[in-house]
Amino acid sequence: MTDQLIFVHDKRRDAYVDKTSEIVGLRPAGAYVYVDYGAARVFRYRKEHVVCYPLLATRRQVRIYKDGTLQEPYDTLFDYGKYVRLGAGEGLRSPAIEKSRIEAVDAQPLPADKERLLSYFAEVLAAKASLESETDTEAAEEVPEGEKKSSIAALLAETMQRIDPQDPRTALYAYLNGRTAACDVDNVALVYPFGCNASQKLAVQRALGNRVSVVEGPPGTGKTQTILNIVANLWNTPEKAEWKTGALGIGSSEACMLGGVAAWLRWRNRRKAAGKPFDKPNLVMSAGFQVLRVHFGAF
Questions:
Q1: Number of C-beta neighbours around residue 202 at 10 A
Q2: What is the pLDDT of residues 155-193, one digit of tens each?
Q3: How does pLDDT run across 230-280, given as a tens digit for each residue?
Q4: Is the peptide bond before 73 cis (omega within 30 degrees of 0)?
Q5: What does the alpha-carbon distance between residue 221 and residue 198 come to, in Å, rounded to a whole number?
Q6: How is residue 156 annotated by DSSP?
Q7: The model scores a pTM over 0.90
Q8: Which of 14, 67, 129, 236 has the fewest Cβ atoms surrounding its Cβ within 10 A?
Q9: Torsions phi, psi of 27, nearest 5?
Q10: How far is CA 200 from the centre of its chain?
């Protein structure tokens, strides 16, 4: 039965369970529904204990992500409103999944030359990782198993294997196709809590409006200041803004800096709204907050 999903209330779990693949027929009868499971197994349920979701739409040739992870080999999405099922070919169907956990985008293969470029880098990294592994074998034997670390090449090679080259949402796809512009940014809504000059302000605006940006310049030209302003805006984006995005920090230092910027901006906005001075923040933190607090306090 692919034209609808059928959920039946399970008394033991006290929850509605997807029974679509097991059911061969339904027969309403007043306040009850007779559910036919085949092989002469027919059970009676109260009407409110059987919930049907009709098929609303079908999308084919799509890349499907569940909680951000590509779901292969599925390439078809069956939309039942609150739930979806994934399909591949004529027979393969997944169980029902909450629609909020699924994102589907139209598959857009890369041009052949870009595919070859990615394959080349993957092969180079794999070869380098193999060479480093052979070189470090003798030294690694002296290190306890739990303390062995992968080489940078091995980590990059593993990352390359997880890249989905057909995902048009990614910055990599946009870069390889020469389409790095993401969206228009409301420059009026941007904040510059760390100060900036004209070139730094332009760099912030372009970084927030493009999928790929490079901030460069000689020492002392304010690159760190510019990046801090970019991060401040990533954390200060209005909830309904078209260009809403996020920030990622690799390591505890970056996480502490991002968290501190967010806390400071929220404090400043509250003080502004209350008509109180906001030029002298007083940040209280635990003794466990690492040495980065000194650097953050300087900013």
A1: 13
A2: 888 888 877 887 877 878 888 887 766 666 767 778 888
A3: 888 877 766 655 555 555 655 566 667 777 777 888 888 889 999 998 888
A4: yes
A5: 12
A6: H
A7: no
A8: 14
A9: -140, 100
A10: 29
